[in-house]
From TrEMBL:
Reactions catalysed: 2-formamido-N(1)-(5-O-phospho-beta-D-ribosyl)acetamidine + ATP = 5-amino-1-(5-phospho-beta-D-ribosyl)imidazole + ADP + phosphate + H(+)
Source species, domain of life: Bacteria
PurM-like C-terminal domain segment(s): 175-342
InterPro entries: PurM-like_C_dom, PurM-like_C_sf, PurM-like_N, PurM-like_N_sf, PurM_cligase
Pfam families given in the database record: AIRS, AIRS_C
Record-annotated membrane-spanning stretches: none
Pathway entry: Purine metabolism; IMP biosynthesis via de novo pathway; 5-amino-1-(5-phospho-D-ribosyl)imidazole from N(2)-formyl-N(1)-(5-phospho-D-ribosyl)glycinamide: step 2/2
Sequence ranges assigned to domain PurM-like N-terminal in this UniProt record: 58-162
Name of the protein in question: Phosphoribosylformylglycinamidine cyclo-ligase
HAMAP family reported in the protein's UniProt record: AIRS
EC main group: ligase
Enzyme Commission number(s) of this protein: 6.3.3.1
Amino acid sequence: MTDPYASAGVDTEAGDRAVELMKAAVSRTHGPGVLGGVGGFAGLFDLSAVGSYRKPLLATSTDGVGTKIALAQAIDKHDTIGQDLVGMVVDDIVVVGAKPLFMTDYIAVGRVVPERIADIVRGVAEACEATGTALVGGETAEHPGVMEPDDYDIAGAAVGVVEADAVLGAERVADGDVVVAMASSGLHSNGFSLVRHVLAERGIGLTDRVDELGGVAAEVLLEPTRLYTLPLLGMLERGLGIRSISHVTGGGIAANLARVLPQHLAVEVDRTAWAVPEVFRALAGLGGFGVEQAEGTWNLGLGMLVVVDAADADAVVAASERAGIPAFPVGRVQAAPAEAVLVEGGWIRGAKGVDGGAVRLVGAFR
């Protein structure tokens, strides 16, 4: 007998095959706090497994990976986009000082291809494992007639826990603190609408080899988002004087740093403190603009900005380097000058609804 749901374009058997293909990778993320296995209506997590807290606060974050998915689709490579998702979601949790506990994901597809779904979720699971996060559930939804057969989108949400008096934030930042940058692995998952616009304006396809990029465009630009959670948690567990942390995502360098500074303080980020990775220079060159013009869109090589007591700045740099992540001071916190309210002076004050401190970039990139 013909399944009427299948005739409508929904293949439930393919969905079941996808789950079977991903089960082993998902199960590897499960520690003692996870109750039950894969496939339940809801994931269960035993909060007593996290240990004793005087006043535990739950931290949560949700995000997607934006139009970077178009690159994965262009070359049919889907095993790294999951790491991008975890980087965007879980690394937003650690910035408040929280330890991630668990994550769920959601994949909307035009047509379920089990192997493709398994590749995506395997990437999510491996990145969850690398950040100490349990992947406790997810959903794959088939949307025939609404999405093209090979289209998909992915989103996720995660929950972490932090002691109430250990929450990081702008109120902890003091005059004289140092801003240490932890290097990015590339574009991460932001600004790909500009990337695709630049390539399209030059008549470059995502599957074209681009000499300026050193390879096929999509292959080079799919470099996965670097994961910062475990190195940062290690620094916090050592008691280093970290005041606040900024994840450099949408909005670029200055706006994201301004969100984690108090209104009366400011930072001048020194452009001479690091060499902008070649991928950004190549894209800017293809677009006919300077890298400075992309400071509000791309991270330009800075993945995390750690605001730390000056006495512990060298220790933060050393800890990051030991974790394989280049790090370097890029600025110092100071009292906000009166003219910092002026956009004409290059200052940016707060972003995304946060009326924070003032930040501007100074000097010339080397």
